[in-house]
Amino acid sequence: MIRKLFNGREDFKKILKLFYQFIGWGADTRIPSCSKLLELNLSWLVMMSKIKMIKIMLQFIGYLKNKYLTDAIELNYEKPVRVNTV
To answer: Is the same domain home to 24 and 49?
Structure first.
């Protein structure tokens, strides 16, 4: 019976996306939005998610810093030497 409702996988995905939007969740992430968490009096989860996001961003910045510093060291960058031709 369920197969009769959907014409294929794409129809199912569209309906699922609409369902998540309807209940106040992210259609792509499938997690509740901040406004939905606040509506459910779960503000502490909003704060935890923001803290977690900040931690992830700081880790990523540290990764980039280490990667580019390591690349610079491996390539042995030096200041160009000026040669006087008189």
So the answer is: no
Q: 55: domain range?
A: 43-75
Asked if residues 58 and 66 have their Cβ atoms less than 8 Å apart, the reply is: no
Query: What is the number of structural domains in the chain?
Result: 2
pLDDT in tens, 41-55: 888 888 887 788 788
> pTM of the entire structure?
0.44
Question: Can you list the alpha helix ranges (DSSP code H) found in the chain?
Answer: 2-5, 9-22, 34-39, 43-74
26 DSSP assignment: -
At residue 52, what is the residue type?
Answer: K
Q: Is residue 60, in this structure, part of any structural domain at all?
A: yes
> Residue 31 region, left (φ>0) first, then alpha (ψ -120 to 50), else beta?
beta
Q: 33 or 86: whose pLDDT is higher? A: 33
Establish if 53 belongs to a structural domain: yes
